[in-house]
Amino acid sequence: MVKAIIAPSVLASDLSNLSNECKRMIGDGADWLHMGGSHFVPNITMGPPILTWVKKNVPDIFMDCHMMVADPAKWVPDVAKAGGKLYTFHYEATDAPADVIRLIHEHGMLAGLAISPATPSSVITEELGNAADHLLVMTVVPGAGGQKFMAECLPKVTDLRARFPTKNIQVDGGVGAGNACQCGHAGANVLVAGTAVFGAESPKTTIGEMRAAVDGEFAKAK
């Protein structure tokens, strides 16, 4: 079981600073960089041109691209060309999630399927869950950083872990060292941390604490 701590979506004042922040987070122990692209939520963040810049300047980066877009199929080719490794889209954004997963795989990327807080985990059927490489449970309402962690979403993680024991299951939203144990206990092995890491006195310490918390919960479950 992979226990990856994913570094946050990075908001920077310029592209050179963005690249430097990505390098800093990898140096502080992050396994992946979580890059958010948004077109169905109010805050537009990282699209393919920015992903291309980051990949050029941090060539070894694993870009986890969380595409909160209204037409997820449309952006697959551009994200793949920009260097995306994992393309996660929202179940709520398409009537044909299986087709989007297939398209992502055809472009050489891993496919992730996300659900928002109001969406039950039951929408991820056995067919969809088995087709996807990665499942994401949002623990805040998509669209803004710094929101309060919604612990009431964690039973969805537990359900998905029970049904898809070998999958990467990610939690995104309000995650930090203080609730990493809860996430790991529920069955999440991939955590996205934004404010908790960038606002920390020592991001390296915070990332280490989160990783240890998840590792400890999975060790208990064995």
From TrEMBL:
<keyword id="KW-0479">Metal-binding</keyword>
<dbReference type="GO" id="GO:0004750">
    <property type="term" value="F:D-ribulose-phosphate 3-epimerase activity"/>
</dbReference>
<dbReference type="InterPro" id="IPR013785">
    <property type="entry name" value="Aldolase_TIM"/>
</dbReference>
<dbReference type="InterPro" id="IPR000056">
    <property type="entry name" value="Ribul_P_3_epim-like"/>
</dbReference>
<keyword id="KW-0413">Isomerase</keyword>
<keyword id="KW-0119">Carbohydrate metabolism</keyword>
<dbReference type="InterPro" id="IPR026019">
    <property type="entry name" value="Ribul_P_3_epim"/>
</dbReference>
<comment type="pathway">
    <text>Carbohydrate degradation; pentose phosphate pathway; D-xylulose 5-phosphate from D-ribulose 5-phosphate (non-oxidative stage): step 1/1.</text>
</comment>
<comment type="similarity">
    <text>Belongs to the ribulose-phosphate 3-epimerase family.</text>
</comment>
<keyword id="KW-0170">Cobalt</keyword>
<dbReference type="Pfam" id="PF00834">
    <property type="entry name" value="Ribul_P_3_epim"/>
</dbReference>
<dbReference type="InterPro" id="IPR011060">
    <property type="entry name" value="RibuloseP-bd_barrel"/>
</dbReference>
<protein>
    <recommendedName>
        <fullName>Ribulose-phosphate 3-epimerase</fullName>
        <ecNumber>5.1.3.1</ecNumber>
    </recommendedName>
</protein>
